[in-house]
Every structure is written in C-alpha cells, then in structure tokens.
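Re: that backbone. Tokens:
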C-alpha cells in the first residue's frame, strides 16, 4: 500500500513539473512580483515596479494600473494604450525580474513533510 502511494505521488509530482514550463508563457502577474518597465526613446518612462497587495502598479503619466491577473503581453498592451494619449506610438517593454514562487505543502507518511518552493 505504501509503495503504491509513493508511486502515485511521484507520478503526480512529475506531471506538475512537466506542466510548469508550459505555464511559463502564460504566467499571470501576482501581488509581490517585480517587473521592469521601459518605453523606447523615453528614459524618463523607465522604472522597476513591485505589484502591490491590491494588485496595481503606478506608472508615470497613466497613474495606477491594475496589473495582477494579467500576462506580461496583456500589461504591455494596456500600458501602450494608456500611454498613446501622451506618447506617439509608444513601444513598451516589460520584463519579469522576480516572481512569487509557488509553494507546495507535502504531508502524510513521507520522509520529509513540509513546504517546498517550486522554482
């Protein structure tokens, strides 16, 4: 019984680890994530931002923008749209610097129960 449980657990963990790279392209920003934003040709519109607990960031000219729940592409499009009122054809670039890591809690009859961070 214990061997069967261990095999099922290993299969589950392998499936999760296979799925993570696929999800990387669809990563949705969360509170606590750090991003770098720049607008080509406008050094004054360059900043690092941490998504606040309310899910928003503040950016020059456009003010507060809801970022949590968006992908980087969606946030880039949103900022480009809002900046187009002030900048002709803004070219916005956003990079993910640091993200909140996914934690997994392992419990039960295992060698090392506890919380582990998935990188």
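Recovered sequence:
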């Amino acid at each position: 019984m214990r061997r069967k449980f261990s095999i099922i657990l290993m299969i589950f963990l392998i499936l999760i680890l296979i799925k993570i790279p696929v999800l990387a392209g669809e990563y949705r920003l969360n509170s606590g994530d750090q991003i770098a934003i720049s607008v080509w040709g406008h050094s004054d519109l360059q900043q690092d931002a941490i998504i606040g607990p309310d899910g928003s960031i503040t950016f020059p000219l456009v003010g507060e923008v809801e970022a949590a729940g968006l992908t980087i592409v969606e946030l880039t499009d949103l900022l480009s749209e809002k900046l187009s009122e002030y900048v002709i054809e803004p070219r916005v670039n956003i990079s993910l610097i640091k993200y909140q890591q996914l934690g997994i809690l392992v419990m039960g009859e295992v060698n090392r129960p506890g919380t582990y961070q998935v990188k």
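The chain is about 30% helix and 35% strand. The chain has a mean pLDDT of 83.
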